[in-house]
């Protein structure tokens, strides 16, 4: 099975914009986090690991569908929390997924609404 192992640097400018602006902090930097991209039924991107069998790692499964792309979001491995459809005509749809009783479901935010915890100190 084909796979690619990468390390992704952390984007600092969203959390520390003033420090980045004055040169006290790099825009991108440590920690560099492992990401594994592998071919399965589509393309699976495992975040935070290079272990293909890590069932706890968040991942995104990308499938080509007639007329567009389907991104299946697995925030903690296991069951999906939501689906994102990118249609070839440019439309995009996000849909919470509760078919499998996922413990975490996708939560929709209003435009420019802060993301809880992620943007906690902004």
Helix and strand composition category: mainly beta
Number of domains: 2
Mean pLDDT: 87
- Unreliable stretches (pLDDT < 50, length at least 5) are none
* Strand neighbour order, sheet with most strands: 1-2-3-4-5-6-7
Shape designation: globular
- Radius of gyration based on Cα positions: 17 Å
Beta strand %: 35-45%
The level of helicity is under 10%
Distance between the amino and carboxyl termini? 42 Å
Could you give a quick summary of the protein structure above?
The chain has 1 helix and 7 strands. The chain has one helix spanning 17-21; strands at 3-11, 28-39, 43-47, 59-65, 68-74, 82-87, 92-96.
Write the layout of secondary structure elements.
Elements: E1 3-11, H1 17-21, E2 28-39, E3 43-47, E4 59-65, E5 68-74, E6 82-87, E7 92-96
Antiparallel strand pairs: 1-2, 2-3, 3-4, 4-5, 5-6, 6-7
Structure description:
- The chain is mainly β and 122 residues long.
- The chain has two domains: 1-56, no CATH class; 58-122, no CATH class.
- Helix content is 4%, strand content 42%.
- The protein has one helix spanning 17-21, and strands at residues 3-11, 28-39, 43-47, 59-65, 68-74, 82-87, 92-96.
- Strands 1-2-3-4-5-6-7 form a seven-stranded antiparallel sheet, with no helix packed on it.
- A hairpin with a 7-residue loop joins strand 5 and strand 6.
- The longest helix is centred in the N-terminal third of the chain and has 5 residues, at 17-21.
